[in-house]
Design a protein that fits this description.
InterPro entries: DNA-bd_HTH_TetR-type_CS, Homeodomain-like_sf, HTH-type_Tx_Regulator, HTH_TetR, Tet_transcr_reg_TetR-rel_C_sf
Number of domains: 2
CATH superfamily of the largest domain: Tetracycline Repressor, domain 2
Organism: Sporolactobacillus shoreicorticis
Shape: elongated
Distance between the termini: 80 Å
Keywords: DNA-binding
Protein name: TetR/AcrR family transcriptional regulator
Number of helices: 10
Pfam family, one: TetR_N
CATH class of the largest domain: Mainly Alpha
Helix content: 55-70%
Length: about 200
């Protein structure tokens, strides 16, 4: 008798699992996504999932890399050639907030979960952010800012200051604690830069 059992170890299954999980995050929190539900949607056995991912944590770590790639592209939205580093950073800050509002579940997994990206001094200084292009976008522009504005600081200190503001401000917006304007972003970034030696 011919074996009719589904072949679940084909080379495209890993990408199919990632695509489904990303799609599911459009409607559900990562807290409501299980390997069982994923295997059911992908029409494979639970064992097939474990051929590609050790556990749910392993899966979400890979999903986070995909989300970070999407966010990195979104951050460059509407940034025109010829803008100064400061103008680019202002637009990136605005884009970051817009992404968080439009993709709340993706944002939650990326930055507010047990699987979230851990930004440490070593990772910024030694280039360990290669798997997270969204953070690399911020790192690049901040490095350019230091040179362009002739700031008296290092990349990690300025990264932390600007990241803390943008991320904290975004959380307030996403949670509907405040309404935001582009002018707020510009003013705060300008204040941070002046505090690090930029000319007003």
């Amino acid at each position: 008798m011919q074996n009719t059992e589904k072949t679940y170890h084909h080379k495209n299954l890993k990408q199919k699992i990632l695509n489904y999980t990303m799609s599911e995050l459009n409607h559900n929190s990562f807290l409501n996504i299980s390997l069982r539900s994923i295997s059911k949607k992908c029409d494979v056995s639970a064992g097939a999932i474990y051929r590609h991912f050790n556990d749910k944590s392993d899966l979400f770590q890979e999903v986070i890399k995909c989300i970070s790639q999407n966010l990195a592209m979104y951050l460059r939205k509407d940034i025109e050639t010829g803008l100064s580093s400061k103008e680019q950073l202002n637009q990136m800050g605005l884009n970051f907030i817009m992404y968080a509002c439009e993709h709340k579940n993706h944002f939650q997994l990326l930055f507010e979960s047990e699987y979230s990206i851990n930004v440490s001094e070593n990772k910024v200084n030694k280039g360990y952010l290669s798997d997270f292009p969204a953070l690399i976008e911020f790192e690049k522009i901040i490095n350019d800012l230091i040179s362009e504005e002739q700031l008296h600081t290092n990349i990690y200190d300025l990264f932390v200051q600007i990241w803390s503001f943008i991320f904290g401000y975004t959380l307030l917006v996403v949670n509907n604690d405040i309404s935001f304007t582009e002018q707020d972003i510009k003013k705060m970034i300008e204040t941070i830069l002046i505090g690090n030696g930029a000319k007003s």
